[in-house]
Amino acid sequence: MCNHCTQQLKQLTTADKSNLRSLWQELFGQPAQEALRREVMLPILAYRIQERAHGALQARIRNELRKVSVQLQAEPKIGALPRPQIKSGTSLIREWQGETHRVRVTDQGYEYSGKTFSSLSQIARQITGTRWSGPLFFGLRQSTERRAGG
Questions:
Q1: What CA–CA distance (Å, rounded) separates 8 from 96?
Q2: Which candidate, 50, 45, 56, 52, places its Cα nearest to that of 13?
Q3: For the segment 113-123, what is each residue's pLDDT rounded down to a tens digit?
Q4: Strand pairing of 115-117 and 99-105?
Q5: CA–CA separation, 36 and 150 (whole Å)
Q6: Are 102 and 112 in contact (CB under 8 A)?
Q7: Contact in structure between 136 and 96 (CB atoms under 8 Å)
Q8: Domain boundaries, the chain
Q9: How much is the average pLDDT of 59-70?
């Protein structure tokens, strides 16, 4: 992190509200709302300083966080956040009944045996002939029995 940014972060803890408001104006290009308390301003300003030093979150991640926020507002007891997405180019390998099956993750979905599928469960069904959870079949998720210690 640049020296200027490090210095700004150190000064946050001792800055009074008027100094924080000046810094807010500098970092956001607009004045902070009058009702904004110092305790609320501190983490927002610290994040903005670090964001400027290291770069902002990618648009894809910001969008995913917005989706999670909307889900949690609609269903506060949801309890589980979406699983991280698998990066394009990743290969998933599963041996089933003596045969090795390879799936390649693409931007369009999952490639298996020269075809593109929209879900891993479709591929697991094709391989086994029965309904399977694709993430479970390919080892991306544990069964509820294993998670519970059973």
A1: 57
A2: 45
A3: 999 999 999 99
A4: unpaired
A5: 50
A6: yes
A7: no
A8: 1-78, 91-141
A9: 87
